[in-house]
Design brief:
- The structure holds 2 protein chains of 2 kinds.
- Chain A is mostly beta strands.
- In chain A, the strands form 3 sheets. In chain A, strands 2, 5, 6, 10, 11 and 12 form a 6-stranded mixed beta sheet that branches.
- In chain A, strand 7 and strand 8 form a beta hairpin.
- By secondary structure, chain B is mostly beta strands.
- Chain B contains no helices and 11 strands.
- Chain B is globular, with a radius of gyration of 13 Å.
- Classes of the chains: A mainly beta, B mainly beta.
- The interface between A and B is medium-sized, with 23 and 26 residues.
Chain lengths: 114, 113
């Protein structure tokens, strides 16, 4: 069975510092990869996704993630965070050879401090 | 921008009661989903629905749960006899195609007393 691991449950960081949120998955087949963000008291919003093509994907608000097949990772990075980036971030996968269900990691709470 | 909506935002019920959670998916989407998140735990898949039938379900989705698309716009999750452990945030999602982005609603927080 596939699983998704987000190694850090909380990441405190100062404003304007760089950040990396780690995500590893285990699967013997190819996957589609997603990062969702959940702001306080809101639902899950898609941040970025990898379906195929370039292994580096970017969001409109400065986040990027790189699919690394050999390391089965899809880490999320931002070179300079803002207070408004404070939220919970979820990594998720869909297996290519199975149905449509998203399997989520446990989430990482990003706390940006002034 | 189109979005998935869910009602109610909060629901409190007594153990053993039936609840119906409602969702309006994005209008041109064909695939519909329910997920739940128990406090402090991972978001878990419950069920997916396509072409008026269940296409996948998890072990959580037992006989106490059912889904329905009663009309062209609503998608509902029914829990027939709620248990304390059903307390969770329930998210509805929809996607236009298979293996594509799933768009989530804001969730319904269910509390079973």
């Amino acid at each position: 069975a596939q699983s998704v691991t987000q190694l850090d449950s909380q990441v405190p960081v100062f404003e304007e510092a760089p950040v990396e949120l780690r995500c590893n998955y285990s699967s013997s087949v190819s996957v589609y990869l997603f990062w969702y963000v959940q702001y306080p008291n809101q639902g899950l919003q898609l941040l970025l996704k990898y379906l195929s093509g370039s292994t580096l994907v970017e969001s409109i608000n400065g986040f990027e993630a790189e699919f690394n097949k050999s390391q089965t990772s899809f880490h999320l990075r931002k070179p300079s965070v803002h207070i408004s980036d404070t939220a919970e971030y979820f990594c998720a996968v869909i297996l290519n050879n199975a149905g449509n269900m998203l399997t989520f990691g446990g989430g990482t709470r990003l706390m940006v401090k002034p | 921008e189109p979005e998935v909506t869910q009602t109610p935002s909060h629901q409190v019920t007594q153990m053993g009661q039936e609840v119906i959670l409602r969702c309006v998916p994005i209008s041109n989407h064909l695939y519909f989903y329910w997920y739940r998140q128990i406090l402090g735990q991972k978001v878990e898949f419950l069920v997916s629905f396509y072409n008026n039938e269940i296409s996948e379900k998890s072990e959580i989705f037992d006989d106490q749960f059912s889904v329905e698309r009663p009309d062209g716009s609503n998608f509902t999750l029914k829990i027939r006899s709620t248990k304390l452990e059903d307390s969770a945030m329930y998210f509805c999602a929809s996607s236009e195609r298979r293996k594509e982005t799933q768009y989530f609603g804001p969730g319904t927080r269910l509390l079973v007393l």
